[in-house]
Each structure stands twice: as structure tokens, then as C-alpha cells.
Write a structure and sequence with these properties.
Strand content: 5-15%
Number of helices: 8
Oligomer: single chain
Order of helices and strands: HHEEHHHHHH
Radius of gyration: 19 Å
Mean pLDDT: 86
Largest sheet: 2 strands, antiparallel
Strand order of the largest sheet: 1-2
Shape: elongated
Length: about 160
Amino acid sequence: MKANEIAPGRFTWRKYPTQINIKNVDAFLWDAKKPKNGSFVLNVRRDEWILTEKGLAFAEENFRILGGADLSRKAMSAKDRNWMRRERDRMLCSEASQKFTAGQAEQISAQDAEAFFRLDAYVTGKPRREKILRTKNLFGADSELGPLIKAAEAKLPTTGEQ
């Protein structure tokens, strides 16, 4: 609905211009996923989409264009808030965090970085990339975790399709 307010008519039915056509929304999301269009989003589950690094950078760069648009989102459930708090605490207590805080970012090992992102040898390819993106999307703007996320990601081995 908010996207339709920003770009009137792009997401509506022709015959019923006040109603959103979910097929249009779906088509735009799939187009935004294509490499030729920038690979801005990633489809992680049936109806769940997350921004890629390029998508997040694009959104941050173009935020000013949106002006006074209300970009608020649905309130988080208590369960989700608790999970985010626990996950943030877990990452801040990790070995990677301790080394980073001590000014020893170069000492963060690949194993430390994988533990930080909750990765192991069985999480490969697309699921691996999705876990890293989800962490960056949720905590990348956090003043404590943002720089740590970048440092830990740099320590991850680059094996093919991460």
C-alpha cells in the first residue's frame, strides 16, 4: 500500500485502481531479483524477501528521495523482539566480538566468523548467503555490531557461490 502511495498506479488493477494487484507486486519483486536489474532482493522462502547488499545500499542512497514517506513497519511481536535481543547479546559475547573489541580484528579466524554468523560446513551456497544477509539487514546499522559484522564477514572463506 505504501509503495502504491509512492508510485501511484504501479501496483494496482487497471479496472480497480484503488486495489493492489498482488501479482504486480510479485512480478516487481522477481524483476528486482534478476542480475540484469541489479539483484536488489533475494527470495528466501515462499513469501519472504530480503534485501541484498546492493539492495540495502540502493535503499540507503535513495532514502532522501522518498522525502516524508512514512517508512514505519509492522510492530514486532514480543517473541521476535526477544529473539533479536538474545541474538544481539550472543553476537556481542562471541569470540569474534571479543577480539574486535580488544582491537585485534586481524586475529578473528574463519571459525570465529562462522560461529558469529552461526554457519558451519553444512551451510553452503544460497542458505549461507541468506544467513549473512539477514544478519546484515537486521543488525548492520547497529553502532556496535555493524563494524563487527563487516570485519567478521571479511574473514569468511570465499568458496564459490556464497
